[in-house]
């Protein structure tokens, strides 16, 4: 069978399989449009909270007004005690409760530090953290006002009092995530995982044996044909996914407002071995598993574990050593680190030679093993 016939046959197999077509084209496009939507606002803002004011003083009311003016929270209810907040939490009417203690105003005048309590659902760490951030910012501002006022009462000039209320000032400048938002933080890495998972499914489905009957007479011909088919499939999927990778690393990130710093050729140099390694791994899955629905199920179930061991949602240093070692066998782990460092952190290409070498080793190992097992299975049939 000529190379031309093999390529045409593989193209027909791809485009005549609705599941593969939907995974490759529909899945990539749908994920790129739907996945970033929940994070369009980047950070939670104007979260509804309730106030329990045990002091009922002028200063506590000032604190409540200042808290309501922050971008993090908005005060929607004032309750008599903390237990009244339970039904509002259960019905999701509020996302936090702030308790102002008794003698709040008196302690401020005496120079003491009153304890303002914050309650919330800590399982939503961004929501809880945002509420705490709003309360801390309000408390710091109110405390500064009290200190300045006390200094003025002691005949300290206003310019000096305004600069002495705190021992130091903080000027925080986010470097790799300018918006400090969740979208810029998670979307680029997840896009790489989506590319891997869809490519694994497509490569695995197409790698399932056609069920050709083998005899001693045609064994050599089938071996050559299967080898050619694997080569053709690798080239076709690499070409298609090069376009998909360009879309994910370029237009899609731009549409979602995620910064891009890498040169296209640098990203291409990283993506090529990644795609080859993923196709090889998908081919191995197709050789080992003969049912398309099982391939899809296994790949989808592996998505969340691969996401959390990739080293960007949860730091690799905090993972058990054995889990970090297992993660290095997944092409997504390496390419996520490489693309994030190049595209989001502005790293130079020389610093990624280790990742590049690892991806090429994976590509050689997975594709080489796939060709070997394909040939061995053909002779054994």
Would you write up a description of this structure?
- The protein has about 375 residues and is of the alpha/beta class.
- About 65% of the residues lie in helices and about 5% in strands.
- It has helices at about 5-15, 20-35, 60-70, 85-90, 105-110, 125-155, 160-165, 180-205, 220-255, 265-290, 290-300, 305-310, 320-325, 330-345, 355-380, and strands at about 45-55, 75-80, 95-100, 115-120.
- The protein has a four-stranded mixed beta sheet.
- Helix 8 (about 180-205) packs antiparallel against helix 14, helix 10 (about 265-290) runs antiparallel to helix 14 (about 330-345) and helix 14 packs antiparallel against helix 15.
- The longest helix is centred in the middle third of the chain and has 37 residues, at about 220-255.
- The relative contact order is 0.11.
- The model is unreliable at about 210-215 and about 220-225 (pLDDT under 50).
Key traits:
alpha/beta, 4 strands, 6% strand, elongated, four-stranded mixed sheet, 381 residues
Overall shape: it is: elongated
N-to-C order of helices and strands = HHEHEHEHEHHHHHHHHHH
List low-confidence stretches. 210-217, 219-224
Largest sheet: 4 strands, mixed
The tally of beta strands, per DSSP, is: 4
* Biggest β-sheet: strands ordered side by side in the sheet: 2-1-3-4
Binned strand content = 5-15%
């Amino acid at each position: 069978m000529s190379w031309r016939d093999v390529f045409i046959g593989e193209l027909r197999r791809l485009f005549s399989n609705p599941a593969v077509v939907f995974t490759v084209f529909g899945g990539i496009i749908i994920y790129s449009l739907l996945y970033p939507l929940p994070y369009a606002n980047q950070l939670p803002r104007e979260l509804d909270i309730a106030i329990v004011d045990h002091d009922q003083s002028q200063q506590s009311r000032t604190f409540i007004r200042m808290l309501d003016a922050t971008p993090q929270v908005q005060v929607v209810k004032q309750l008599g005690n903390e237990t009244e907040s339970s039904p509002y939490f259960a019905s999701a009417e509020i996302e936090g409760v702030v308790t102002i203690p008794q003698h709040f105003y008196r302690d401020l005048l005496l120079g003491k530090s009153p304890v303002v309590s914050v309650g919330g659902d800590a399982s939503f760490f961004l929501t809880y953290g945002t509420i705490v951030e709003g309360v801390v910012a309000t408390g710091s501002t109110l405390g500064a006002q009290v200190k300045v006022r006390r200094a003025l009462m002691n005949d300290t000039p206003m310019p000096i009092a305004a600069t002495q209320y705190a021992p130091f000032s903080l000027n925080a400048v986010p470097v790799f995530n300018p918006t400090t938002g969740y979208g810029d933080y998670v979307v680029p890495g997840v896009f790489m995982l989506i590319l891997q998972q869809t490519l694994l499914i497509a490569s695995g489905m197409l790698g399932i044996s056609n069920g050709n009957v083998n005899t001693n007479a045609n064994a050599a011909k089938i071996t050559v044909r299967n080898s050619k088919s694997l080569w053709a499939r690798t080239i076709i999927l690499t070409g298609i996914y090069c376009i998909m990778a360009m879309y994910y690393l370029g237009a899609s990130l731009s549409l979602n407002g995620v910064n891009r710093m890498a040169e296209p050729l640098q990203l291409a140099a990283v993506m090529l071995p990644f795609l080859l390694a993923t196709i090889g791994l998908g081919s191995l899955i197709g050789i080992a598993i003969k049912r398309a629905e099982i391939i899809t199920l296994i790949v989808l179930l592996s998505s969340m574990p691969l996401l959390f061991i990739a080293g960007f949602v949860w730091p690799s240093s905090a993972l058990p050593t054995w889990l970090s070692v297992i993660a290095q066998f997944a092409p997504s782990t390496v390419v996520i680190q490489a693309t994030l460092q190049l595209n989001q952190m502005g790293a130079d290409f020389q610093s990624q030679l280790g990742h590049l070498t690892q991806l090429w080793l994976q590509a050689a190992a997975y594709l080489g093993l796939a060709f070997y097992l394909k040939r061995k299975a053909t002779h054994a049939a």
